[in-house]
Specification:
With about 180 residues, this protein is an all-alpha fold. It has one domain (about 45-175). About 90% of the residues lie in helices and about 0% in strands. The chain has helices at about 1-25, 30-175. The protein is rod-shaped.
């Protein structure tokens, strides 16, 4: 049993040493521990310097090789777009001005057409009135000539009637009073 208890003690001592080694592998005190931490941090930072330098180089390369050309391209595209928008707005303003100008010319042309139409209608009315006047005068002349001819014929017929009235009166008197007048037939 003694051997067993001795083994237990040794085992326990080894186990505590093992635990102590895990907690403090170098068997250092607190100040040595801090120095070791600072040494490890220095080694870590020293190892990180190339990574930081590579990262800075990559950022600068991105800045010069990608971002600046991309920014310039986007700015040029924005300028072209704004220029195209301004050109389109100017084209719209010009189109509106032309539309107003065309509308004004159309209104003037319609006015001229209306004036020409009115002038033609007046001319046609004047020609019609002149033709009617000529026709009226011709008709009046024909009427007056016919009236004069009728009056002349009536005068001739009256003169003939008057000239033959005496003969007719004698013939009537003879026909009605043939015997009473003492005449013979």
């Amino acid at each position: 049993m003694r051997v067993r208890s001795c083994y237990k003690k040794v085992f326990h001592l080894r186990q505590t040493e093992h635990t102590d080694r895990q907690n403090n592998p170098y068997n250092l005190d607190e100040s040595d521990h801090m120095q070791l931490i600072f040494q490890q941090l220095g080694t870590l930072f020293l190892g990180a310097v190339p990574t930081m330098l590579l990262f800075i180089v990559l950022v600068l390369a991105y800045q010069f090789l990608v971002q600046e050309p991309l920014t310039k391209t986007l700015q040029a595209r924005r300028d072209r777009t704004e220029g195209a928008i301004e050109a389109a707005q100017q084209a719209l303003v010009q189109a509106e001005a032309r539309a107003v100008e065309y509308a004004e010319k159309l209104r003037q042309a319609r006015g001229e057409v209306f004036k020409l139409r009115e002038a033609r209608i007046k001319q046609w009315n004047a020609e019609r009135d002149a033709a009617l006047d000529v026709a009226r005068k011709a008709a009046a002349l024909k009427v007056s000539q016919a009236k004069a001819a009728l009056d002349a014929e009536a005068a001739l017929a009256r003169a003939d009637l008057q000239a033959s009235a005496g003969d007719l009166a004698r013939q009537v008197v003879r026909a009605v009073l043939p015997v009473a007048a003492g005449g013979s037939r």
